[in-house]
Amino acid sequence: MANLINWFEIPAEDINRAVEFYKKILGSDLQQQEMNGIKMAFFPMEGEGVGGSLCQGEGYVPSQNSALLYLNGGEDLSEPLSKVESAGGKIIMEKSKISDEIGFMAVFIDSEGNRMAFHSPK
After folding, report:
1. How far apart are CA 36 and CA 38, in angstroms?
2. Which secondary structure element, helix H or strand E, spans residue 111, and what is its range?
3. Tens digit of pLDDT per residue, the chain (122 long)?
């Protein structure tokens, strides 16, 4: 098994607001489409990597009390983290060192009210 996780979905109250938030902090476009009544916006991925999307529709409720999803913060998560608040989110744990081997993490609330995190080696 290459990865335990192979797909993730982040709930959105307003898919357009969520797309703009993640576009600003990640610097990537998200492709939107509707599938089976669910509005979706897909995060870019390479090759056989883990993929995911934002989802707005019945049963998709943003939460600060669910599983914590760590997004790739690139080489240094300081860059995307610095954009969180100006994009409409809130930082709830500043960049913190986990260990020399593991790297760094930070936790934030996205534009929809989801508790999310970044991880990076530096």
Report:
1. 6
2. none
3. 577 889 999 999 999 999 999 999 999 999 999 999 999 999 998 888 899 999 999 999 999 999 999 999 999 999 999 999 999 999 999 999 999 999 999 999 999 999 999 999 99
What is 7-120's CATH superfamily?
2,3-Dihydroxybiphenyl 1,2-Dioxygenase, domain 1 (3.10.180.10)
Residue 48 tokens read as: 């056989």
Residue type at 102 in one-letter notation: I
Confidence (pTM): 0.94
User: Residue 22, Cβ neighbours under 10 Å: how many?
Assistant: 26
